[in-house]
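tool=predict chain=A
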Amino acid sequence: MAVSVHLLDFYNALFERLCDAVNALAAALNTFYKQRGFVLVNSKGQAMQDPFRKGLGYVIQWYSNLQVQIEKVVEAAVVSADAHYRQLSELSKELETTDTPQLNVPPTSPMLECACILQRQCPACFGGVKFGRPLTDGANIHVCVNGNFNHRHLKSSGDCPQFYKPEFMLPKTTVDSIGELIEKAHRKPPKPRQPLLPDEAVDGCESTHVAGSRSNSKTNMEKFDDGGVMALICRHDVPLFLANIDTPGEQQKYAVALLLHLFSLLPLTAMVSALYNVGCVLDQSSQLFDIFPEDVVSRLLFATSAMHAYIHKWACQLRTSAQRVLKECGVPIEVLRDEWDDQRRAQLSVRAHAPTRLKKELDSVLSLQGQMEALDQAIQSLCQELSKAQASATLLDLLSKLEQMQEVFQERGEALYSSLNVHKSFPGLMHVDLKFVRLLLATRDLKINICKCAIGSFLE
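tool=predict ok
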């Protein structure tokens, strides 16, 4: 079977728009020829059910390998020309500064521009030479990390012959080594820090996401050896690097490995803003443990895209989601900024997330107080019974000691309640009864649940 190169080019265009272009093209050709009376037969003269698929598959693989070889030759020529141009540029600079230029001197200055592999992928993102824009002003480079669990590989299919060496796929050994470093870092005590986002809010975001979890399984790994693909793309939707996901869940090691590989190809002054659906969780981990090197932490900002922001806690949305500019609302920008700052201070404070912690501690205090009251009633009833009868002096002395111990336990219970700092977190609850505080917290939880149900019905 002879296949035209123009048909192969047509296949490439078809492949970009279909999920299974080989079968689609083979079936279309078979139908096209049958309608015109051309039926392909085998050596026995029998009509073939699928005469084009296998031959097309072989020739498409051959054509793909040919294109890879051509790209290698072209890339080698470009790299050689670029190196020659850089050498001439260095030589011209030396001629301007000294009369005795020295050739073939290894450069000692740090990397001033992005690596060639990044410049080829997206010249708009990585073709510049000016870096150092602060993270608060938007950084220099914007990337996004996310996993896709629809690209899987069956274990029963085995491994095909290696036609070329992947350039943009991170090796499994690299990803696994990053995972071992993360495990080793988590065994150490957390670092002291001043969190910009309350830990309670981050824990709430983590519980509502499957991504980044070790336990939540998205793929049956007994059936697949590669359960998905983790991709790092730039702001122009150009894929930069990928990594196979070979664990049941989307663990942090994939995102960390992709980001570290990116930073290894960037100048030391390049600032990066990374969008990740659980960026707040990975940011918290990087603050608590040495997951990223210090020179990377100072140049990396995690954010959440608008598509994923609404499932996060409100405090997290204020910290990581994009701030939208309000236009034509009749309110001055200065007033909006002041209100925004006030809202951030209120929502990002520990007090905003204190009720969840206080409710558990108040339950313990109330349980202890209930036991002390039951013991007090038992002692009082015993005193009444002993007062009716003639008790010995020894028994009365023991009863007196029990009453003293009961008073000590009550004082300790009150000290335990004071140690919760409820009045410090909520000054309005000063001199309020403990049971009433517990009722207020239960009412608050009920109000939150009602709001969630109402918002869910509105979205429906």
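Confidence is low (pLDDT under 50) at residues 322-327. The chain is about 55% helix and 10% strand.
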